Amino acid sequence: MRKVRLPPGPVVVDVLGATLTDEDRSRIRHPAAGAVILFARNYENPEQLAQLTAEIERQREPALPICVDHEGGRVQRFREGFTAIPPMRLLGKLWDRDRDAGKEAAASVGYIIAAELGAHGVDFSFAPVLDLDYGGSSVIGDRALHFDPTAVGALGACLVRGLAQGGVAAVAKHFPGHGYAEADSHVAVPRDGRTFKEIARKDIAPYKQVIEAGLAAVMPAHVIYSEVDSQPAGYSRRWLEEVLRKQLGFQGLVFSDDLSMEGAAVAGGPPERSRAALAAGCDLVLLCNNPAGLDELLESLKDLQLAKPERLERMKKQGGRDLRKSVAYREAQETLRIVA
Questions:
Q1: How far is CA 140 from CA 189, 226, 271, in A?
Q2: Known catalytic membership, residue 257
Q3: What CATH code is assigned to 37-46+64-285+307-336?
Q4: Among the options 186, 222, 258, 303, which is catalytic?
Q5: How far apart are CA 155 and CA 241, in angstroms?
Q6: Which tens digits make up the pLDDT trace of 239-283?
Q7: Catalytic annotation present for 146
Q8: pTM score > 0.85 for this model?
Q9: What is the rounded CA–CA span in Å between residue 33 and residue 23?
Q10: Which among 14, 131, 203, 257 is annotated as catalytic?
């Protein structure tokens, strides 16, 4: 099968299993597709993953970037043959004992993630989580680095730099902050009734430092901040255009969170959800674990190209050599041992 030559579209597509099916190939080659996301179901071992990513790259020109949720702790899709990345909360605990050691460990974690993903043909991870740990969110929990915005900003910036040193771009989530809302946006529509001033003083503060560190992309939360907008952040021009773009000066890519989540259901079906996210300022949209809905979404956006493809180009991994053979990788592994 020959590669198709197509500019990227605005949809991140998922694939069904450990090898590509004809359905997968059709979705990857669809004009609306712009990236491919992998899950645990797509992983058996390192050799299989490298073969899968190589086949994905062969489907079209330019190749679509490949991504994964690889934060560490309970959100790490690839395990056998990969370093077990600790929950981000442990970096925060190390920060409390020794700030310099915490920052060094955060950079090392970023470098290890980047080196291992890049060696297997994966371009980037949806990390780091910049949500503050208020103690009440079931879905965030130990995924959060800390409750202190200063700690989250400093550690998040080090994670971003570590990923970049390994040739991988970073995606900060979940803007402007999912840590205060207790409901899980996978199964409910979380609400946060605080004022904008309060959210800006605490939850948004880390983004300033992380953007300065070279952050490439942001994923907004499926949370309604009722004092600011009646729509979830991912459907809100106030949050994405006014606050993220204009006030914070962010120039990178904006991904929607998974539009199959219950927190996204306020906009209607998959096509309506995708158009609401794009109209609000998202560059790319995700609809995962819903093949029929994904096909409907792709067809609804078949005539829509990515508005600023240079933002997506920045998400492709940099450098061709296997960084797992480098001195920096061995040193990062040594540093990681102090985290637990």
A1: 15, 20, 28
A2: yes
A3: 3.20.20.300
A4: 186
A5: 26
A6: 999 999 999 999 999 999 999 866 566 667 889 999 999 999 999
A7: no
A8: yes
A9: 13
A10: 257
